[in-house]
Amino acid sequence: MTEELGTPLLRAPAVAVSGGIAVLAAELEAQGVGVERIDWRPPAAAAADLERLAAAGGEVAAANREALSRMSTARPVVLGIASAADAIGLERGCFLHAGPPVAWEAMCGPMRGAIAGAAVLEGIADEPERALRDAAAGRYELAPCHEHLAVGPMAGVISPSMPVWIVESSEHGNRAHCTLNEGLGRVLRYGAYDAGVIERLRWIERSLAPILAEALARLSEPLDLRAIGAQAVEMGDELHNRNRAGTSLLLRALAPALVASERPSGDLSAAVRFIASNDHFFLNLSMAMAKATADAAAGIEGSSVVTAMARNGTDFGIRLSGTGETWFTGPAGRVEGLYFPGYGDADANPDLGDSAITETVGLGGFAMGAAPAIVRFVGGDSELALATTRSMYDIACGESEAFRVPALGFRGTPLGIDAREVVHTGLLPQINTGIAHREPGVGQIGAGLVTPPMEAFAAAVGALAGRGPARGEAA
Q1: Are residues 187 and 105 in the same domain?
Q2: Which of 146, 431, 436, 441 could covalently link to 192 via disulfide, CB atoms 3.0 to 4.6 Å apart?
């Protein structure tokens, strides 16, 4: 979020449940938030699963060390920009969306609106109402971004003609993709599909993307996202809800190549103004960087490290390194935080978007201690930001070598969420995120903190322990 959207107002006092993390609970109490302290005990089935995994503790620990090593050595770089059709083979009539799989009947308003707008953009529907009818009739193919090497913010809809960043871990060779951030206000990712939204998307495809692609090609070496991200975190970003430094560093890195362009000066000026006016422009690159990092650790037998967290506005899903492409899900939560003037709980959609991939690699809520200014938008104060980061070390396998928190003596952010520790401690990953209006097209109405459903982690641990769906099946 940015100041241009206005200052959010705090709604009625929230009541939080703390699973035994004394520092975080005490900080919430100091802010006047009611805290219910509970003595967490895993359910009987989960306790049995943890015992089975403990019996194979050496193998799990070795697998997790390998996962952590792969995440730590991942070096995501930008290879270029291409259409989703060319980059990931997306075919006409296929639309990707955020989160785990979801049927049209269960899909939230913003996601339906985004699919309708994308269908108009692709020219397969002449109006949004026709697109909505066609989608309800099953005429479109819908699939999660994560299942096509991609991620998308909020509704996360990607269609074939949309340009995407092509990001690759130079160390491991795996790729990730994300669209270009379309700016603030009425945008497709929040379900808006009016003429202005479509016009902006076509400008991104026909003008902005080619300009940036040419600039990337002029660089002497690929854009190093980990290096930019590391600098941005030390400058006060956490690279989920705050990307001001990241966007500035990106524009600085591209500036020499942009000024060397032979394109019309008006086109170049419009491109630079668009990026400079949108503090969230780097978010989409941050997400692709995070996916390339997390995917480098996927597929390690026995590993309990979380490689994806994603929400579709109905369900929250996670994946583990050791359980392949299986999704483990629970209901998407309600974000607790600050609302823009005129909005409240009744207006909010449940948690939405693929952007929680940032927390999966030690950014976002896990790096809040490095971004004290974020509390102006999600609530609390700088001590809460530090307490949140400190608490996440209890469920992490290690610490990031790239992203460091100045206020903690440049300690690395918590890296590698261990699903076993989540279930064992009852401490859920903290995610800071935007709040979308439940109706298509209204946009962002606030921001705050949210946690995943515990049942997703319990199911994942059960599958890893040999109980539950087999590898590759839906949970």
Answers
A1: yes
A2: 441
pLDDT at 45: 79
Q: How far apart are CA 256 and CA 250, in angstroms?
A: 11
Q: Residue 326 to residues 95, 101, 110, 422: CA-CA distances in angstroms?
A: 20, 11, 25, 18
Strands 15-18 and 34-37: parallel
Residues 322 and 409 in one domain: yes
Residues 392-442: tens digit of each pLDDT? 999 999 999 999 999 999 999 999 999 999 999 999 999 999 899 999 878
Site of tokens 């998308």: 152
Residue 30: pLDDT over 70: no
Domain co-membership, 175 together with 278: yes
In single-letter form, the type of residue at position 346 comes to: A
Looking at every residue in the chain, the average pLDDT score rounds to: 90
Q: What is the pLDDT of residue 32?
A: 62
DSSP bridge pairs for 397 = none
Which sign does the torsion angle of CA 392, 393, 399, 405 carry? Answer: positive
| Residue span of the structural domain in which 45 resides | 3-72+299-464
- Residue of 430, 424, 454, 462 lying closest to 326 (CA atoms): 462
- Give the tokens for residue 51: 């015992």
Residues 6 or more apart whose CB falls under 8 angstroms from that of 46 comprise 423, 458, 461, 462
Q: Which residues pair with 436 in a beta bridge?
A: 444
The answer to whether 245 and 231 are in contact (CB under 8 A) is yes
- Chain segment 166-220, per-residue pLDDT in tens: 999 989 999 999 999 999 888 999 999 999 999 999 999 999 999 999 999 999 9
Report pTM: 0.89
In terms of Cα–Cα distance, which of 433, 461, 246, 436 is closest to 356?
Answer: 433
What CATH number did the domain enclosing 327 receive? Answer: 3.90.1700.10
Residue 12 has pLDDT above 80, yes or no: no
Query: Domain check: are 8 and 120 in the same one?
Result: no
With respect to residue 201, please indicate whether it lies within any of the assigned structural domains: yes
For residue 50, CA distances in Å to 152, 294, 415, 427 come to 33, 24, 21, 15
Non-local (6+) Cβ contacts of 21 within 8 A are 391, 394, 427
Classify residue 474: in a domain, yes or no.
Answer: no
What residues are paired with 82 via a beta bridge?
164
Q: What is the Cα–Cα distance from 84 to 432, expressed in whole angstroms?
A: 28
CB 71 within 8 A of CB 50: no
pLDDT at 257: 96
